[in-house]
Amino acid sequence: MMTTLPEYCWMAVQASLEKKAERVLVLDVRRLCDYARYIMVCHGEVQPHVQAIVDHLRETLEPRLRLHHVEGYEGARWVVLDYTDLVIHVFDEDTRFYYNIEDLWVEAPHWWFRDDGTPVVLPPPAEGEGPPDTFPTPRRGARKAGT
Asked: What distance in Å separates the CA atoms of residue 142 and residue 23, rounded to the nearest whole number?
């Protein structure tokens, strides 16, 4: 398992944390899909917060990466930024926990980031095992998988 992330992932994480994004997660999906190398997921508390996170991500990344597509900005419940190698999902809190897309990529190595930017790396489960039970404790409003 790769223990470091490319610079563009670190830039995206830092930019999202600068705008107080919550539960920032980067997934290494290189072995699991062909449309991206990494997927980042985070959320804001309300729609204006989501838009502020997205705006700052774009300001930070677009001088270095080409934005292929953006979807959902006006409604700001689930915004997708597609930078080809990096796909970023920025949700409002309720929408994130409703769709729980992290569970789609349970086999991928996970990097959760604390508010100070410190990563917590979780390897994928071993073959035949379920997801690790050491995921960070969800914040308020979170729902458990399968509920």
From this structure: 11
Domains and CATH numbers, the chain: 7-122 (3.30.460.10)
Percent of the chain with pLDDT over 70: 80
CA 145 to chain centre: 17
Q: Which residue has the tokens 């050491």?
A: 134
What pTM does this model have?
0.81
Residue in the structure block whose two tokens are 């399968």: 146
d(CA 95, CA 110): 20
> What is the rounded distance in angstroms from the CA atom of residue 70 to the CA atom of residue 114?
26
Indicate if the alpha-carbon torsion angle 42, 56, 66, 91 is positive or negative.
positive
Those residues whose C-beta lies under 8 Å from the C-beta of residue 39, and which sit 6 or more positions away, are 26, 27, 29, 86, 87, 88, 89, 105, 108
